[in-house]
C-alpha cells in the first residue's frame, strides 16, 4: 500500500461512518512542517446538530500503532480555525513528543472554546459511534475521541483512573458539546 492509498483508505473509513467531509483544513502556523504532508483536519456533518473534526494522517502507514482522533462540537463554523489548531497541536505532540493512546490526556494550553473551563483533552473510546468507527482493520488504525475536560477532571482521572472519571461523566449525564458545562467532580 502506498501513502496515497493509505490516505484514501482513511478518507473512506471516515466517509463510511459520517459521509463525505464538508471541509478539509490544514493549520499553517507553527512547526507544521513536522507533520506528515497529507496531514489535515476534516470536518463532517456528524448529525444535524453536531460536527466532527477529525485528523487525517496523524498516523502514517509505517507507524507500529496507528491513531487518528476526532473532536465533537455543536455546528458552529466560526470556531473551525481554533478546533483545527487544537487537533493540529495534538497531532504534532503525538508525532514529535509522546505517542498518545486510549486514556491519555493532553493540555490544550487554553480553553477549547471561549469561556470554557475545559482546557485539556481526554482520549476516549468513540462511544457515540462504537467499534465500527473505532477500528479500521486493514491496515489496522484506531480512531478515538478527544473529549474536552476540566483541570479538576484531569486530576480526578490521575487519582482514580479513567473508568472512575467516565463513570462520573455517565452519572452526571454531562453534555460533552457544552463548552460552558460544569465539571463533573
Keywords:
185 residues, alpha+beta, globular
As a percent range, the share of helical residues equals 25-40%
Strand content: 25-35%
Radius of gyration: 16 Å
Strand and helix order? HEEEEHEEHEEHH
Distance between the termini: 46 Å
Overall pLDDT level: 93
Description of the molecule:
The chain has 185 residues and is an alpha+beta fold. It has one domain (3-150). 31% of the residues lie in helices and 26% in strands. It contains five helices and eight strands. Strands 1, 2, 3, 4, 5, 6, 7 and 8 form an eight-stranded mixed β-sheet that branches. Strand 2 (40-47) and strand 3 (50-56) form a beta hairpin. The longest helix is centred in the middle third of the chain and has 17 residues, at 80-96.
Could you provide a short overview of the structure?
Helices cover 31% and strands 26% of the residues. With 185 residues, it is of the alpha+beta class. The model has no long low-confidence stretch (mean pLDDT 93).
List the helices and strands and how they pair.
Blueprint: H1 3-18, E1 23-25, E2 40-47, E3 50-56, E4 67-74, H2 80-96, E5 105-107, E6 118-124, H3 131-134, E7 135-136, E8 141-150, H4 151-160, H5 162-172
Parallel strand pairs: 4-8
Antiparallel strand pairs: 1-2, 2-3, 3-4, 5-6, 6-8, 7-8
